[in-house]
Input
Amino acid sequence: MTRSRSARAIAGTCLAAFIVGPTLGGQTTAPSRVPRNADEFDALFQQVKNWGRWGPNDQLGAANLVTEAKRRQAAGLAKTGLTVSLAHNPLTESAEDNASPFEHTMNRGFTTDTYRVSYHGYAHSHLDALCHILYKDQTYNGYARADVNTEKGCAKLSIDNLKQGIVTRGVLLDIPRLKGVPYLEPGTAVYQEDVEAWEKQAAVKVGPGDAVLLRTGRWARREKTGPWAVGQSAAGFHASIATWLRARDVAFAGSDAASEVMPSGVAGVNLPVHTLMITALGINILDNQDLEGLAEIAARLKRWEFELVINPVPVIGGTGSPLNTLAIF
Output
């Protein structure tokens, strides 16, 4: 009961966390959302953080919310056996959104080959480990940078903690479909009310242990207009979504870009959504997922929940992993 009341309080705070802008010609401008600066960001960080929730030595963060019961629930969603890959095929050409192209080299004899990829960034489908983002020289759960991030890899919170894989309920948040457009334009922020409007339209509700996948239509737009500097201009969550994620006890989150709106609107803070999700909440982030096929299947089946299977490469000390995530209907 205490946790439920706390969750409601957090959600209520998020609903109130904006200031309506001035009127121009009788029309109200877009609201100015909190956090807007470093001080407001710090207050939000302290409000939502999960540090110590699963003990002082915790290595899993919000993945603790994926229980055996949650896995059984997720398995029950695989009703047809239809699988959909969420991995975008590796991009091998340099582009504005791909500074480090995937390299595929055939070895002598052409019966073996070598892959080389620097997967963090805005091109390759991957999962961020909890040691990937820090805030004020601390990682998730309050570990000091010097105790985690070393030249030999992450001594704590590395991707190999998820070696057993993740099986949970996935929920697609198809915001372009909600708004009746093929894709969101870069710079479009997604707020709590957008997500809750989608829940109502899609007849789903995000709950504890779920993985949420935000479709902005990034790959559809790229196919139509070409690549652009996604790291500077992208649709995605506004930082205020953190209170909703905490209230709903979301375990994993991701999108078809880097999950956060760019520019972020939070002055003086780099990657505020990543910092809130990974460092405060302990939520591993799925970046650059290709959600176009998933959106098509979900719309055809009129079902936006599914079993989600995430299997990172268990690199000891790794800050993340490329991966081929599967949705099973």
